[in-house]
Structures are given as C-alpha cells and as structure tokens.
Specification:
With about 650 residues, this protein is α/β, with parallel strands linked by helices. The chain contains 20 helices and 16 strands. The chain has four domains: about 325 residues, Up-down Bundle (ABC transporter transmembrane region fold); about 40 residues, no CATH class; about 160 residues, P-loop containing nucleotide triphosphate hydrolases (Rossmann fold); about 70 residues, no CATH class. The strands form four sheets. It has a six-stranded mixed sheet, sandwiched between helices. A four-stranded antiparallel sheet has the order 2-1-3-4, with no helix packed on it. It has a four-stranded antiparallel sheet with strand order 6-5-8-9, covered by helices on one side. Bound molecules: adenosine-5'-diphosphate (ADP) and magnesium ion.
Length: about 650
C-alpha cells in the first residue's frame, strides 16, 4: 500500500518515499536496543505460546473426565487431573512474569526510542541548509515532532507488539488444532480466509486516508503557526473573518480525511466480530456432527477417534483463532497507518544536510615581525586560514577580511536569475555600501558571502581563498551579520549578547554594548543586563532589539561585518548615537552595509547602486553625486526609496 505513494513521476529522485519504512523502523529500534529488544521479543512470544498451551490441557482434562464418566473410577481420574492442573498453574505464573517483564521493557524501549528519534531529527535539522527553512512551513516541521512522533509511539508501543503477540498465538493455536483434527482445522481455515478477505476489502482503503490525514494535520498546524505569528497583521487589516474561513477549509479537509481514515477502521471491528460468531456456530455444529456420526479423525496426533473433548477444545480454539487473526489484520492496518507518520519523520531525517567540502580552516596564529605565521593552540587574537594542498604542504594566510566577488551570477530557482555579473572588491578596513530598491538583490549578496546559498557562476574569495574551499563554520565565524529581522532567544540581555561569542566575559559583553551605543538603554531597563527577553524580544522595542543584535555581532569581533538594514528601525536621533558606536565598531573591519537611509551610507568608501540584480553605478558619495545618475536622483529626493 505504501508503494502507491512512491510513484516515480511524482516523487523526487531522493532517499524519500522509502517503501521499506517498517524495516527501517525495526532496524533503528534494534540499533538503539540490541539487547533489550530481543529479550522483550522473547517475553512476548513466550507469553503468546503460554496462552495456547491451556488448550492442550483442557482437552486432556475433559478427556479424563469423559473416561471417568464411563468407568466411574475417580481415584484414577484424580491422579491424572491434579498434576495437569498444577503444570497449568505453573505455566500461567511464568507467563504472567513474562507479560510483566515485557510491559516494563516496552515502556523503556518506546520512550527511549522516541527520545532518540527526536534527538536525531533535531540534530539533523541543525545541519539543514537555509534553503530548507525558506521552502518549508514551520508548523509542518513542528507537526513532525508532535503528531508524527505520536504515530510512531503507537506503532512501537502498540501495533508491533500486538501483531507479534497475536501472530504467535495464531501460529501456536493453529499447530494445536492440526494436532487434534485436520478436518475441523480446514473448515475453520476457510471461514477465516473469508474473514480476512472481508476485512481487507473494508479496511484496506483507510491506509490511504491516514496518510492524507497526517499531511492535513501538518498543513493545519502550519497554518495556525503562521497565523499566530501574523496575529497583529491580521488584526490591523481586519482579516479575522477571512482567516477563519481559510482555517475552516483546512479544518474541514482534515476532518474529511480523518473521518475516512477512521470510518473504515471502526466499521471493521463489528463486521469481523459477527463473522467470528457465525464461525463459532458453524464449528459447534460441525464438531457435533463429527462426534455423533463417529467420523474417522485425521490429525497430527494420529488419534483416530473424534472425541467430545476434541470438539469442545476446538470451540474454545475457534474463539482464540478468529479473535487473533482479527487482531493481526487490525494491527497490520494500524502499522500501515502509523507508517504514514514514520515516513514523514524519515523524510525530515533524510533531507540532505548542508554540504560542506571545505577543507580550509581557521586557526589561532602567532604572526612575527616579518609576517611569518605559525599555528598555535592558544588564543592569540590573531587568526589565519590553514590551507592544506594536494602535495601535502600547508600554507597559512592571515585572516584580514579581504572579500571579493568576481562576476557572480545567482538564481534561487532555476531559470529565474536574481543576480547578474556582480563584481565587488572589498579591501580590509573598507566600508562597502549597497543601495537600491527593495528586491534589487542586496540581501541575496550577503546570503552568498556567508554561503547560505551557493553561486551558479563566478567566484567569491575571502582573503584570496575561494569560499567554496573554506569550511562553512569557519567562514561564518569570520563574518558578523546583523539583519533587519532580529532574532533574540529566551534568556537575559547578557545571554543574548554573549550569543555572539559563547566564552565572552560579562565585561566583554558590556564593552561591546557600550561600543555600539546599546549600554545606555540597557542600563535603563528594570533589571539592566539581567532583564529577561521573552518571545523574541516582544518586551522591548524593535530598535532596542536591533541594538542588542548589533552588540551581539560586536562581541564576536569578526574582521568582516555585514549589516543588512541593521539600523532601519532605529530613529534618526538614536541612530546618530549608534552611528558613532558603529563607526568605532567598523574601524579596522571590512564592512558591508545595506541601508535605506542614505545618511548611513554616505561615508562609505564605495557605494554600489543596485537595480534588478545588477550593479548600475559604483563610486564614493562625491563621485556618484557628480555622475548625476540614479544615486544622485535618490539623494536629491527625485526618486525616494523609503
Ligand atoms: N529564498 C528565496 N527564494 C527565492 N527567491 C528569493 C529568495 N529570497 C529572495 N528572493 C528573490 O530575490 C530577489 C532579491 O531579493 P533580496 O536580495 O532579498 O532583495 P533586497 O535588495 O531587498 O535585499 C527578489 O526578487 C526576491 O523575490
Ligand atoms: Mg533585503
């Protein structure tokens, strides 16, 4: 049933849509619990076998009583019955222990399995490229951690053990039945095959809808999440009714899918039970006929006499057999359904991690007077790129913050180029500004420098090294980025600043805050640096959030800074204060600034005017004004950006 999903025409050619999901779940389980799992399995199978054994004993006891009825010798009967009953009790006790043990172990295994799976998902998610988050809804990803994990819980804690238990019991009871009477077994078998046929007809369809249900849940959660984030926008534009309607549609879809998924499953139980009851009657009648007509018995026990004890035992086994076959078919359906969730989890885990073939790394360095660089373990404040070459030699290049983009072309989606022929030279200590209309491609350039995305054509070099050769984490460590959208995490202001450099002392954090002009407002907060930031900084203003973000970048002290509309939410008066801090922050660093306010970029060494993914003008403020082009228009207000 799962195969239907992996239609080669609709599925991308990746590890996704694996039809062997169940095998993968089991393999993963085994890899997590190589000892506990077999022990648990053994206990499950043992307890199942123990449940079939009483049939044999009951037959024996009835046979003895039958004989006692004929002979009237109670003493002889008693000496046979008592040991049988004692053994039976012993088996029950051991089975009880087995049940207790596996239930305890199951709890350990299930919860441990889920915890490890969540961990795997989260770890994997940290390695995913930005592209993944740009193209997937947060709520849908969240739903994999909650709903889909829950289906996995049902799979591991209920469906699989129940199937094993019922399956083992079916096999045991079947063997016992063959042992007593092949004729009756065949009659029962025909009935059971009919029962399975009906259950597959009725229940088979539900798996498809269960997969749809899981997808619908993901979609609905994605929607709720998005609407929660956009609550203010919804209110401002009075979009409540429209949003309610959209939600209603999604909710109804979810309802329809869930209904179909469960309607079949619920119908199945009663149908099967009734077929089971009819079978019971048929077996009773058949057993009676066999006994009364004295039909020659064929059995694995080679007992030719079809006795009353066999007929009675068979009735008992009929219930057990049909009940457990029914269990099996239900659990198989449950497993197929749960696999829908498991697949979504594996899908997330199989997402290709951000590739990184970088081998040039950033190391602490000692640089002597004539510029010779030696690597060291100590923190010296000086850094160098360690560049191993094919012939085994290693060269070191001082980290200085020289960034060049050489004829760079880029597209997010195939066939839709966003950047054309971008060439930028930024020497250490230079301030390079990008101005241009929204959507011109300014942010995209910064996405390329830190390799959130890889370029289609051209080269980007950092200190003369192609950035593709640099290990991503080291490349990003050597860049400081402040974005327009600030993300603060739950924690104190101090913690948030320290995010830039985890081993920074309080003094370093405060120094950084002072440097960028954030100290002033922070000390005026009720608890100063210890003020808690919650919900991405909802308790402080947007401008204050940006100041903290700038301080966070400052504490990292990287040679290259990228400021993407970093001061756009700060008022002009505060900006003047921040500007002074920023100027000292920028000193000795290569800085890329993107800003709407031309006052911010005016003192840059070079200003790039961008339009539609192209650099149309370049030069410093004075040159560009003299050129009387687009920049001149912007500056004189003939063409306003803001
Ligand atoms: N993640 C993305 N996927 C696809 N297209 C994008 C993505 N981000 C930006 N774009 C497109 O790239 C172009 C440049 O965007 P951007 O660099 O953000 O402009 P800006 O100059 O305003 O910073 C825009 O047309 C935008 O639609
Ligand atoms: Mg932008």
């Amino acid at each position: 049933m799962m195969n239907k999903r992996s239609n080669p025409h609709t599925m991308p050619m990746r590890k996704k849509g694996n039809p062997h999901t169940i095998g993968r779940v089991i393999k993963t389980l085994f890899s997590f619990y190589p000892v506990l799992l077999p022990v648990t399995l053994f206990c499950i199978l043992f307890s199942s076998a123990a449940a079939a054994v009483p049939d044999v004993f009951i037959q024996k006891v009835i046979a003895v009583i039958e004989k006692w009825g004929e002979t009237g010798n109670w003493e002889a009967a008693k000496s046979e019955i008592v040991p049988t009953i004692l053994v039976l009790i012993a088996i029950y006790v051991v089975a009880l222990v087995a049940v207790f043990v596996y239930n305890r172990l199951m709890a350990v295994i299930t919860q441990g399995f889920l915890s490890k799976m969540r961990r795997k998902m989260f770890d994997g998610m940290q390695n995913l490229p930005i592209r993944y988050f740009d193209t997937h809804k947060t709520g849908d990803i969240m739903s994999r951690y909650t709903n889909d994990i829950d289906t996995l819980r049902q799979l591991v804690s209920q469906a699989i053990p129940s199937l094993l238990r019922a399956g083992a019991l079916v096999i045991c009871v079947f063997s016992v039945m063959l042992y007593y009477s092949i004729w009756l077994t065949l009659i029962l078998l025909v009935g059971v095959i009919f029962m399975i046929y009906v259950s597959q007809k009725a229940g088979g369809g539900s798996a498809k809808y269960f997969i749809r249900q899981q997808k619908s849940i993901g979609k609905t959660e994605g929607f709720i999440q998005e609407m929660m984030n956009g609550q203010k926008v919804i209110k401002v534009f009075c979009h409540e009714e429209a949003v309610k309607e959209d939600f209603c549609k999604l909710n109804e879809e979810l309802n329809a899918d869930s209904y179909r998924a469960h309607a079949y499953a619920n119908m199945l139980g009663p149908i099967i039970m009734n077929i089971g009851n009819v079978l019971y009657v048929i077996m009773a009648v058949a057993g009676g006929f066999f006994y009364l007509l004295g039909i020659h018995n064929i059995a694995l026990s080679f007992n030719p006499v079809f006795s009353l004890s066999i007929a009675v035992t068979f009735l008992n086994m009929t219930k057990q057999f049909t009940g457990n076959v029914n269990q099996c078919s239900q659990q198989i359906n449950a497993i197929v359904m749960a696999l829908a969730g498991a697949e979504r989890i594996f899908e997330l885990m199989d997402e290709l991690p951000e590739s990184d073939d970088g081998y040039v790394t950033l190391v602490n360095a000692v640089i002597d007077k004539d510029g010779k660089i030696t690597e060291t373990k100590k923190h010296t404040g000086e850094w160098a790129w360690k560049h191993p070459h094919g012939d085994g030699t290693i060269t070191y290049t001082r980290l200085s913050g020289d960034v060049t983009l050489d004829n760079v072309d880029f597209e997010y989606e195939e066939g839709k180029p966003v950047l054309h022929n971008i060439t930028v030279f930024a020497k250490p200590g230079q301030k390079v500004a990008f101005v241009g209309a929204t959507g011109a491609g300014k942010t995209t350039i910064t996405n390329l420098i830190n390799r959130f995305y890889d370029i289609a054509d051209g080269k980007i070099r950092y200190d003369g090294i192609n950035v593709n050769k640099i290990k991503k984490s080291d490349l990003r460590r050597s860049l400081g980025i402040v974005l327009q959208e600030t993300n603060l995490f739950t924690g104190s202001v101090m913690d948030n600043i320290r995010y830039g450099k985890l081993d920074a002392t309080d003094e370093e954090c405060i120094k950084a805050a002072k440097l960028v002009g954030a100290d002033d407002f922070i000390t005026r907060l009720p608890e100063g640096y210890e003020t808690m930031i919650t919900n991405n900084g909802a308790n402080i203003s947007q401008g204050q959030r940006q100041l903290i973000a700038i301080a966070r970048a400052a504490v990292a002290d990287p040679p290259v800074m990228i400021l993407d509309e970093a001061t756009s939410s700060i008022d002009t008066r505060t900006e003047a204060i921040v500007q002074r801090g920023m100027d000292s922050l920028m000193k000795g660093r290569t800085v890329f600034v993107i800003a709407h306010r031309l006052s911010t970029v005016k003192n840059s060494d070079v200003i790039m005017v961008m339009d539609n993914g192209r650099i149309i003008e370049r030069g410093n403020h004075k040159e560009l004004i003299e050129e009387k082009g687009k920049y001149y228009q912007l500056y004189t207000g003939a063409f306003e950006l803001e």
